[in-house]
Automatic annotation (TrEMBL):
The lineage of its organism: Eukaryota, Metazoa, Cnidaria, Hydrozoa, Hydroidolina. The gene is WDR85. The keyword Repeat applies. It catalyses: diphthine methyl ester-[translation elongation factor 2] + H2O = diphthine-[translation elongation factor 2] + methanol + H(+). The keyword Cell division does not apply. Its EC number is 3.1.1.97. This is methylated diphthine methylhydrolase. SMART domains: WD40.
Amino acid sequence: MDQIKLLYHEVLDETADCIESITSNMFVCGTYQLVENESKRIGTIKLYELVKQQDKIDVITCNEVSTNAVLDMKCFYRENVLSVADSSGNALFYLLENKKLTLQSSLQIDSDSLCLSTDWCKTSNPDTSVFSLSNGELALVKYFGSSNPVLLNKWKAHSLEAWIVAFDNFNSNLFYSGADDCMLKLWDSRAGFHKALITNKEFTMGVCSLQSHKFKENILAVGSYDEHCTLWDNRYLKTPIVKTNLGGGVWRIKWHPNYDNILLTACMHNGFKIVQYMDELSRSTVIHSYNRHSSLAYGVDWLLDYYKGEALEISSGSGQHVVHFAKNFPKWTWQPSEYDLRCLKSISEYIAESQLDNIFKPLLIDLNTCDLSSLKENKFDLILCINMVHITPLKCSESLFAVASTLLKSNGKLITYGPYSVNGLLTPESNVLFDLSLKSQNADWGVRDISYLEGLAKNNNLILRNTVEMPCNNKCLIFVRKLE
């Protein structure tokens, strides 16, 4: 088994019990310390920065905030907002600006309990967060930036300490909780909170960690004091998909932000483990471990840049799309392309007007000829294609997937947007009329079926990972290039 290489080590004055990455080179560490002679719990939030110098990595402390003991932290990455669960029953919200953490707002949920865990609802903006408490309660909190947060609801969810709570990554109405009562529960905010939607009683010891899969809908990873990490399908919470013995209580787990089969775990008495899943998550093996320390393993996270990469847009049209994305994802570089010379001129004008420095000069790419000599293989993290598939001949769709297979990195994404039929059925009526209109203009045009595109993907080492419903009866299809 490969061993994890140690890059940096620091011994803190207080117990380090949680950690959360914020940017590609910044993370926070929360501490917990019981002051016995004063019967109180204290802690700090330390902000660190990684500085790379040739082959050496230095870790610098940028900021330190003294507070109550910190039990958990979660970052809303797009806004750099940190929700914190503390030992005095508080929900705290910090903002990261200029390498400094500033307390924006706070709400005391229960003065007689500890807040044990927190998570953000998976929406486009920081809005709603959830907290679990030592008295078994859960609380939904509305976040309003610098204004006071509002307690939306609080209810008794478990009979013992609710160690963990987490939102579903695909459905903002769903969230999960686990507790010392050995129960895993699925909640739906639309159904109310008097009773969990589903209760799993299959655990023999407390449930202390869980996370919804980032790429696979319905999949959930759960860690327990019983030293096992289990994968579940939330549509069938009676039998796990796979169960992995990690040799220690699985206190925290984090899915890899890019690879859909890699899980990072903190296993208390048995160190840190990286688990790889195979055969559609049905088998697992520990591929890396680190246990060269004497204390308990409590906190883990991946320090990766979630919002940095290289993107290629096929069929950029006027150039409005690429400018919009470049503005909203400034750490990404964007390469527009078109086959129509008139569009190339329009794209250049939009780029010039935007004054953005992360958009390259548009390329002439014609999917009928597929001349990619100007582009490097395995270069892009993302290929984006908006409203092209249905207004081009089938050959262009075939070429699109061949291009993606050549130009995408392993685990890179191809995203197509537009109207699609599903298993031969095209709905609603407006899409049927649109399809007839397209075919009347050009017999080679028309709305494509998703199964047809799935076949093209399979032939080019890609797989359809997700289908996202969009406004006006359109869909985003997210394909992933398989790992080599």
